[in-house]
């Protein structure tokens, strides 16, 4: 079974590193993380990209400018996953 995580952000710099580190440290490793970012301007993407460079699994980033909104962002992130 291939496990994907869809993580959506908007101005999430305060929490995104902890979220990603938690996902990456699960007892059952995930196969990919897809981050959908909805037009953040607070450094969220810089944090995600920094973690992605050393992550043991691919972290795919989808940047939305203009923002898609909550439902659109999650729909897009889920559509980009390749897991079961």
Structural class estimated from helices and strands: alpha/beta
What count of helical segments does DSSP give? 3
For the residues shown, what is the average pLDDT? 97
Number of strands: 3
Strand order of the largest sheet: 1-2-3
Distance between the termini: 6 Å
Rg (CA only): 12 Å
* Biggest β-sheet description: 3 strands, parallel
- Approximate shape: globular
- Unreliable segments (pLDDT under 50, ≥5 consecutive)? none
**What is the element string, with H for helices and E for strands?**
EHEHEH
**What percent of residues are in strands?**
15-25%
What is the compact description of this entry?
The chain has helices spanning 16-24, 44-54, 69-80, and strands spanning 4-9, 32-38, 59-64. The chain is an alpha/beta fold and 84 residues long. The protein has a 3-stranded parallel beta sheet with strand order 1-2-3, sandwiched between helices.
Plain-language structure description:
- The protein has 84 residues and is of the alpha/beta class.
- The chain is 38% helix and 23% strand.
- It is built from 3 helices and 3 strands; from the N terminus they run E-H-E-H-E-H.
- Strands 1-2-3 form a 3-stranded parallel beta sheet, with helices on both faces.
- Helix 1 runs parallel beside helix 2.
- The protein is globular.
